[in-house]
């Protein structure tokens, strides 16, 4: 039964099958453009601090408002 709160149900299920938690799977599956391939995003180092902050907000990283640019990059990569 599909969950209306999950934007990309197929990706959510694939992440759950890999052992991700329900929360983390939902967070990833609900990010904009989830499941799209292409690798066209520029490296985080080329993003502005504001872009990094918005991405951290999208994936639910707490404490982001007090983070410096390098800390945001580390948090996003380790989320």
Notes on the protein architecture:
It is a single chain. With 79 residues, the protein is mainly alpha-helical. It has 2 domains: 1-37, no CATH class; 41-79, no CATH class. The protein contains 4 helices and no strands. Helix 1 packs antiparallel against helix 2 (22-29) and helix 3 runs parallel beside helix 4 (69-77). The termini are far apart. The model has no long low-confidence stretch (mean pLDDT 84). This is Rho termination factor. Residues 50-76 form the Rho termination factor-like N-terminal domain. Pfam families: DUF7218 (PF23855), Rho_N (PF07498). Residues 1-26 have a biased composition (Basic and acidic residues).
The whole-number mean of residue pLDDT values reads: 84
Order of helices and strands: HHHH
Principal-axes geometry comes out as: globular
Which class do the helix and strand fractions yield? Answer: mainly alpha
The total number of structural domains is 2
The radius of gyration over CA amounts to: 13 Å
List segments where confidence is low: pLDDT < 50 over at least 5 consecutive residues: none
- Helical fraction: 40-55%
Number of helices: 4
Q: Work out the strand percent.
A: under 5%
Give a quick account of the main beta sheet: strands, pairing sense, barrel closure.
none
Gap from first CA to last CA:
28 Å
Number of strands: 0
Assembly state here? single chain
Record keyword descriptors for this entry.
79 residues; mainly alpha; 2 domains; globular
How is this fold's topology laid out?
Blueprint: H1 9-17, H2 22-29, H3 49-58, H4 69-77
């Amino acid at each position: 039964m599909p969950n209306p709160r999950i934007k990309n149900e197929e990706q959510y299920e694939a992440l759950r099958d890999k052992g991700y938690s329900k929360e983390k799977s939902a967070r990833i599956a609900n990010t904009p453009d989830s499941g799209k391939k292409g690798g066209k995003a520029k490296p985080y180092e080329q993003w502005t601090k504001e872009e990094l902050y918005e991405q951290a907000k999208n994936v639910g990283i707490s404490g982001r408002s007090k983070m410096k640019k390098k800390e945001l990059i580390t948090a996003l990569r380790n989320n």
